[in-house]
Amino acid sequence: MKELLKDLTKRYGLSALYEQRPDEMFATVKKEDAVALITYLQGQEGFTHLVLLTAVDWIEDGQFQLTYMLNNPSKKVDLGIRVMLDRTDPVMESIHHLWKQAATYQRELKEMFGIDFPNSPRIDEPFILEGWHDIPPYRRDFDTKKYSEETYFPRPGRVTHDPAEYMKKKLYPEEGND
Amino acid sequence: MSLKDLDKRMVTGPDGEQFEVDPMQDYFCGEVPKVHKASSIKIWENFLNWARSESLWILGYGTGCGAIEMRPLMTPRFDAYRFGVQWRPTPRQSNVFVIGGYMSVKTLKRVIRSYEQMQGPKFVLGLGSCTINGGMYWDSYNTINRLDHYLPVDVYITGCMPRPEAILAGVEELKKLIKAGKGEGQNKYAENFEWYKANQKKIIKNWDMPDYNW
Questions:
Q1: B-contacting residues of A 122-151, CB under 8 Å?
Q2: CA of A110: how far to CAs of A70, A129, A144, B141, B204, in Å?
Q3: Which superfamily does A2-173 belong to?
Q4: What is the ipTM of this complex?
Q5: Domain B43-48+56-200 CATH assignment equals 3.40.50.12280
Q6: Which of A99, A101, B72, B94 is within CB 3.0–4.6 Å of B59 for a Cys-Cys bond?
Q7: What is the pTM of this model?
C-alpha cells in the first residue's frame, strides 16, 4: 500500500497523505487528475469496488471536498481519494463510466450539495426531494432550523435542558446546588 | 405522475377508437368533501357510533419508523385482532390511518392522497412525538412538525416509539371517542378544507394532483 502511494505521488502529484489504519489510507489529488487516477486504480491496481462517494462542505475554506472511497477486494485495502472543489463553482467530472452506480451518488450530491457532474445520467432529475426551491440543504450556509421554523408550524412549548444538569437535578434533588 | 399526465389528450382504445381523455374530469372527483350531519334521532346516532367504533380497519401504510410497531401488533404476540381492528392493504378498504412517526414532505403528499381516498367515516391516529411536535426531527428541513395542520388527528399516542400496548390503548381511546360522538375528524377536514389545503400546499411545492382526488 505504501509503495503504491509513493508511486502514485510521483505520477499524479498526491498530497495530504493520511493513514487511518494500515489498510485504510487517504490522499488528496488535483481536480484535473482525479478521474485519470481513479481509472488507473480501478483498471490496473485492483480497486474494483466503489464503496462510496461523498462530500464535505468546508465553508470556511470556500471548498467542497469529494471523497471517492475505493476498495481492493483481493488485497483487502481501502483508499480514499479526496478532491477539493471551489465552492463558488462546484463542477466535477463524472465517473459513471467506471461504475454505473456512481451516477446515483452524483445525483444525490447535485441535489444535496449542488455539486454538478455534467453528462452524468439523470443528473438534473430530483433524487429525494420533490420541488425543492431553496439552496441545497446539505450546504452549511443553509439554516435548517430557521427553515423548519418558518415552514412547518412549530408547536409552541418546546424547552431545551442541558442533559447533565437536568439529570443531576432529577436524580439527586436533595443535593441542591453544589 | 407529473403535471403533464393531467393534460387533456387523445387516447386510442383497444378497438382502435379514438377518444378524448380529460384526467381532471374523468379520473378524479372534483367535488370537495362535505360535512355529514349527525342523525337527529339520538338513539339511532348512538347505534351508528357504536357500529362505527367496532368496525375499524387500519390502512397498512407505514410512514415512519413507528410502522415497525405494527408487525408485533398484527401478529400473535400482541394480537390486535382481538380488539376488533384489522389491517387492510388499500385506502379504499380502510378507515383508520395510523401515521407511524416522522413524516417527510414527500410522504405527506402520498398520505394526503391516501387519506382522501379512504372511505368515511375515517379516523387518524398520530403515533409518537414526531407527529405531535416533530420529535427529534423538529428542526429538520424535510419533516413536518405538526400533523394536525395537514390532517385532522383524532388521537395522538405519545412515545418515541410507543410500545404496541400504547397503540392498543390508543385504539381503545379512539373507540371511546367515536362512541361518544367525538370522532369527527372527517367533518373537521371538510369544514376547514381550505385551511388544510393551504397548509398542505405551503410545503408541497410540486402539487401535481387535483385538490381532492378520491
A1: 128-134, 137, 142, 144-145, 147-149, 151
A2: 21, 11, 18, 17, 21
A3: NADH:ubiquinone oxidoreductase Nqo5 subunit (3.30.460.80)
A4: 0.81
A5: yes
A6: B94
A7: 0.84
